[in-house]
Structure to design on (121 residues):
């Protein structure tokens, strides 16, 4: 495979941005600058009680409004993607013992949707 020439004019670089970009650039497009999450994360060590068990610091409740009810295992597995997104926005892994997850559903004749309640203890 031929090596890409390094000493080329600026017009050649503009016409071939996929060949002449920095490693941080993809296809000649600058990567987006990430903004820091304005929400306070639950960083740091988990607090342990006298029994040595991690203390719950945050309760996340999902309430699904549906036209027909699901069985429990389908309800919980349907929330997996939303659970990952909520945990990422809080700033910790969704399997962390500082988070308590609760799942509920209500049958409705009206609009369907999901209510997410995040309580910090």
């Amino acid at each position: 495979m031929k090596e890409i020439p390094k000493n080329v004019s600026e017009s050649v670089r503009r016409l071939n941005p996929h060949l002449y970009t920095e490693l941080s650039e993809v296809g000649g497009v600058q990567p987006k600058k990430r903004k820091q999450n304005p929400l306070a994360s639950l960083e740091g060590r988990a607090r342990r009680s006298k029994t040595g068990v991690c203390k719950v610091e945050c309760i996340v409740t999902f309430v699904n409004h549906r036209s027909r009810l699901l069985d429990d295992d389908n309800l919980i597995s349907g929330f997996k993607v939303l659970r990952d997104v909520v945990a990422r926005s809080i700033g910790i892994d969704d399997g962390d013992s500082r988070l308590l997850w609760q799942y509920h559903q209500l049958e409705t004749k009206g609009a369907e949707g999901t209510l997410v309640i995040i309580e910090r203890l």
Summary: The radius of gyration is 24 Å.
